[in-house]
Design brief:
Elements (H helix, E strand, L loop, with lengths): L2 H7 L13 H11 L11 E7 H17 L19 H16 L6 H9 L9 E8 L5 H19 L3 E5 L6 H5 L8 E10 L17 H4 L6
Antiparallel strand pairs: 1-2, 2-4, 3-4
Helix pairs in contact: 1-6, 2-6
């Protein structure tokens, strides 16, 4: 798979096959992703990779908290804005409506929408999951470094025939996750990543988000 194909075929997969992902494959993906750039090569990331029983236990604990005490949990950083403006709110809505339409969930079916959201915490049935942290002692620029690292994980996974779903939803339950993993106090839990083989029969996996054309977000001079 060439680089263009790996990037353009990447998507958020929300239902995976139970086929195991070998540890050696995960290590290879992370070794490739670790070549991501970072300011002064500080490499501000850490990864916690889970499979099998540890993955199931962590997912069950987070799912229970999400069902019973969601209001008691908040992330340690602001991922989404407190006030949405266009064009971002329009894109957000289009993504949500498109996903629910693919699943046959009506816009007013709050119960099914909630059930689909909660599937985040079972890693969408993926056989492997990653928790990604950032050293909280660093500054905003390190979030850019981390973004490049996470993107590299997802592209390297495509190179192995795997798919991913990056999930900021886990950041809300960092206290629960810390009870299951040796995350240090100076680490900020930023997201989880579901990792595995796509279930090609799942309708939600057929939903592909759109992108703006280059001319809509680029200003050229001197070409």
């Amino acid at each position: 798979m060439n680089v263009d194909e790996a990037i353009t075929s990447r998507k958020s997969v929300r239902r995976f096959l139970p086929t195991p992902v070998p540890r050696a494959t995960v290590e290879h993906i992370l070794e490739v992703a670790a070549r991501a750039p970072s300011g002064h090569n500080v490499q501000p990331w850490r990864v916690y990779a889970l499979a099998g029983e540890p993955l199931a236990k962590l997912g069950a604990a987070v799912l229970h908290a999400a069902k019973t005490e969601a209001d008691a949990h908040q992330p340690e950083y602001e991922y989404y804005p407190t006030k949405w403006v266009e064009p971002y709110i329009g894109r957000r809505r289009a993504t949500g409506f498109g996903l629910y339409a693919a699943l046959g969930i009506a816009r007013d079916d709050a119960a099914r929408r909630e059930a689909q959201m909660l599937r985040n915490y079972t890693f969408f049935d993926a056989p492997a999951g990653l928790m990604v942290t950032l050293d909280r002692r660093l500054e905003t620029g390190s979030f850019m470094d981390l973004g490049m690292f996470i993107q590299s994980i997802m592209i390297a996974a495509r190179g192995q025939g795997l798919h991913t779903c990056a999930q900021a939803a886990f950041a809300w339950y960092h206290k629960i996750i810390r009870a299951h993993l040796p995350i240090a106090d100076d680490e900020l839990l930023t997201c989880g990543i579901s990792l595995g083989y796509e279930d090609p029969s799942a309708p939600e996996n057929a939903f592909i988000t759109t992108r703006e054309p280059v001319g809509a977000f680029t200003h050229f001079e001197g070409f």
